Amino acid sequence: MTENMRSLRNLFLYKCLFALTFWNLISLSVENELFTSISNNFPEDGSDKKLKSLPLLYTNSHQSKANFDWVVIQNTTESLSLSEITNVNVKKLVALLSNFRQGSRLQNLTLTNVSVDWNALIDIFQTVWHSSIEYFNINNVTQLSHIVPRGFNYSGTSMKALTVKKVVITDLYFLQDHLYTIFAEMNIASLTIAESEMIHMVCPLSDSPLRYLNFLKNDLTDLLFENCDKLIQLETLILQKNKFESLSKVSFMTSRMKLLKYLDMSNNLLSHDAADVRCQWAESLAELDLSSNQLTDSVFECLPVNVKKLNLQNNQITSVAKGMAELESLKELNLASNRLADLPGCSGFTSLEFLNVETNLILTPSADFFQSCPRVRELQAGDNLFKCSCELQDFIRLERQSGGKLFGWPAAYVCEYPEDLRGTQLKDVHLTELACNTTLLLVTALLLTLVLVAVVAFLCIYLDVPWYVRMMWQWTQTKRRAWHNHPEEQETVLQFHAFISYSERDSLWVKNELIPNLEKGEGCIQLCQHERNFIPGKSIVENIINCIEKSYKSIFVLSPNFVQSEWCHYELYFAHHKLFSENSNSLILILLEPIPPYIIPARYHKLKALMAKRTYLEWPKERSKHALFWANLRAAISINLPMADGKRCGETD
């Protein structure tokens, strides 16, 4: 019959039991009870090939027809997938699987959505154990009840790997060993029990052939395989996403696994106390995953000495202290997503080739990293909080010299600080040599300081600054003494119309012309002259200050002789100080003789400024203009002053 079915595309069966061989079958349907098939594994080239895979879904659309006979594909398929297994049809499943004795081509079996009791589940396992099946996957298992001791014959099996995922046990009262012993004693190379809320697994009673063990996403704790020495062939152990807490206990668990090479302890609650007991790992352990735990710097005191690949990503490590760990075989180290502030050195990792420190708190990576780690071929240091300052310039130059060893450059290397450079790639940051070379900056600052000091010193000498400072000090001291001796005198009472400042060489003109023409004329003008009004016993400076303050105006008789007189300079300084401190217009300049600018000393810059900005009276050579000169001068100093008897000039009784 089948020899004439080479062009068959669709076949409908109704309550039949067949042993068939198909070539070009695309879909297999049974009226009322439907099995659907996937055509990917069906040959379409007309060749004489056998069906390799037949996924079947038993829908049981009519519950009253529970006497359905399973389709048997014997000696023609390598993989079979069945779904919706219940206590109603489990016996038919067992009967179906019984047809695949050893020597059959069926090697892969997948059962999905299995809801049966304990005895039925064990019957399925026992049947599979003595079939040709080598790889058995069972997903979404609900074990309803009645977990009791069951014998299990493990002998003569073709099984190599068992994968059990998403198991829910509804029986709340049973002995743990009744459940876990069945799995612990399995004589297979690979066992996976994942996402099943498993809280324990017993140690095998005899040496186990297990080489691969995967308990992903369960509720296992530090009690797992405690003092267990039967897993002597185990090479790979995956305990990801469980509830382990003590790293040292994990190390002792592995110490008896003599062939263990790979251990995954990621996404647990692991920590290590530096004062804890000494760790003892399997000497054969070459790859260890401790990512996403609660480990700190002390983890480096509890690591397998022969490890080659170590993953410590997403922990709480802040630094790798020198001398803390001696991992001479370590080639690959992942420290991403921790709290490192700098690149770790390689004093304890002399064979390190790959280092990942992405997403840490590194501001300015050490520029000597590749010198301390000469064997490193790739460094992943992107996505850190880089501070783009002078210290980072050496690291940027290091990248240019490394020959492409920085993974992710330049996109992953971006400034975080300062704020004005945030988002700028490190390769685009350019700082001047002066700003980044401390020695050059200090030398430049020193030279500028020396130049500034020299300029200030020159100006001080040229402008006679010490002289002005000395004058300011004398004026301050004089005012302080006056206040101390006569605190009641808050206001200075004017006694003179003008104080006369002149050079002794011009005294004849002052005594013969200036004083007679002002005092003997109208207006009762009183002039203050040092020869007759300075008070004996007081210092010259104090007398000058008192006279200037008690005078309405200060008359300066300017001539070449004036600029050569030191005391004239004092008087001009104090009068000028009064001009600014009291905001008064008290200065009167009389130019007795022209003064060539070149003979005025540099320290007389105030005199130059006054002559340039203020109007001065020039003594006329023509006698006819003298009257106008004296009239203008009297008008400038005219003010009513109280007389000694309290009266004012011109007042009578």
UniProtKB/TrEMBL annotation:
GO biological process: cellular response to bacterial lipopeptide; inflammatory response; innate immune response; toll-like receptor signaling pathway
SMART domains according to UniProt: LRR_TYP (SM00369), LRRCT (SM00082), TIR (SM00255)
Alphabetic keyword roster: Glycoprotein, Immunity, Inflammatory response, Innate immunity, Leucine-rich repeat, Membrane, Receptor, Repeat, Signal, Transmembrane, Transmembrane helix
InterPro entries hit by this protein: Cys-rich_flank_reg_C, Leu-rich_rpt, Leu-rich_rpt_typical-subtyp, LRR_dom_sf, TIR_dom, Toll_tir_struct_dom_sf
Entry's Gene Ontology cellular component terms: plasma membrane
Subcellular location: Membrane
All residue ranges annotated as the TIR domain in the record: 494-637
A GO term for molecular function: lipopeptide binding
UniProt superkingdom: Eukaryota
Family from the record: Belongs to the Toll-like receptor family.
Protein name stated in the entry: Toll-like receptor
Phylogenetic classification of the source organism: Eukaryota, Metazoa, Chordata, Craniata, Vertebrata
